[in-house]
Write a structure and sequence with these properties.
mainly alpha; rod-shaped
Length: about 110
């Protein structure tokens, strides 16, 4: 007969214990969701600060360039400049008589057009 009250007590206590665990489980889920939201918020703040830092650095570089203190350096030699000779470039030349003759022909052609 002693077993019957223990079984009845366990039968009554088990749903109450399960109910407390359900409440605790819901509380833990709410805490987890809150922690997740805080983590996302912190991540967003970190990204915003990193972006702001990059923008500030770019702005500072531009200000330095505007002041003339920044002179970019060439990492590679200029391929258009020969390392052996630095003489003046040779341009094609036309004798004056040929130019005068060409000018005369152009003037004659312009007069005949009218």
């Amino acid at each position: 007969m002693r077993i019957l009250p223990v079984i009845v007590l366990l039968a009554v206590a088990t749903p109450a214990a399960a109910q407390i665990n359900a409440f605790q489980l819901e509380e833990l889920r709410a805490q987890q969701q809150a922690a997740d939201r805080r983590a996302i918020d912190q991540s967003n703040q970190i990204q915003a600060l990193e972006t702001r830092l990059r923008a500030d650095q770019a702005s500072a570089e531009l200000a330095t360039q505007r002041q003339g203190a920044y002179v970019p350096t060439l990492r590679y030699r200029d391929p258009t400049v020969s390392s052996r000779t630095a003489a003046a470039p040779k341009y094609p030349s036309v004798p004056d008589a040929v130019l005068a003759d060409s000018n005369r022909r152009v003037q004659d052609a312009a007069r005949n057009r009218r």
